[in-house]
Amino acid sequence: xALGLSGDGTLTGVDPVASGxxxxxxxxxxxxxxxxxxxxxxxTDVTGMxxxxxxxxxxxxxxxxxxxxxxxxxxxxxxxxxxxxxxSTPIGVGAAAGSRTQGFANIRVDNYYNMxxxxxxxxxxxxxxxxxxxKLQMKTSSGTSYLNRTGADDDAAGILRTSSTLLAIExxx
Length: 173
Description:
By secondary structure, the protein is an all-beta fold. The chain has one helix spanning 16-19, and strands spanning 4-5, 11-12, 24-32, 36-38, 44-53, 61-72, 79-86, 89-91, 105-108, 116-124, 132-140, 145-147, 164-171.
C-alpha cells in the first residue's frame, strides 16, 4: 500500500502501531526562568539552554522546539540574532550569503519595555545513536540584548520576566 494523505490530513498507507512510524520515543527538556544577557556581536551559547539526547536508531528524527522572548538595551535598539546548533552545526537556518551569520531569527525590539517572543520548530535528522547536544545561541548587533527580561527590567506594572524552553523529541521514522 502506498503512503498518502486523506482529505482530512490523516496519513494513509501505514500502520503506526505495527511500524512504529511517528511514535514518540523520548522527550528531553530544559527550562530557563532566569535572564541571560549578551554584548557579543558573534553567536554565543545561552547559559542553561542546551539539551542532550541519545537517539535509539540512526533513522530517528529529532523534533526541536525552542521558545522564549528577547529584548534589548534602550539606547542602542540593537538587533537580536538567534540560532540552534546540533553539536557544532547550525540547524534550520537561512542559506549562507556573504559574511552574514546564519540563524532562524533576526529581531529588533525598538521599545525597551517590550519583548519579542520567538518559536523555533525543526525536524532534524542527526543520523546517529550517539549522544547529541542541541543548544540555543544568541548575539546582538550592538549594545546589550536579553533573554527572559525586558531592556528596562524595572518593577513597573506590566513589566514581566519570562521563561524559555528547549525540547528535543525523538520520533521513530
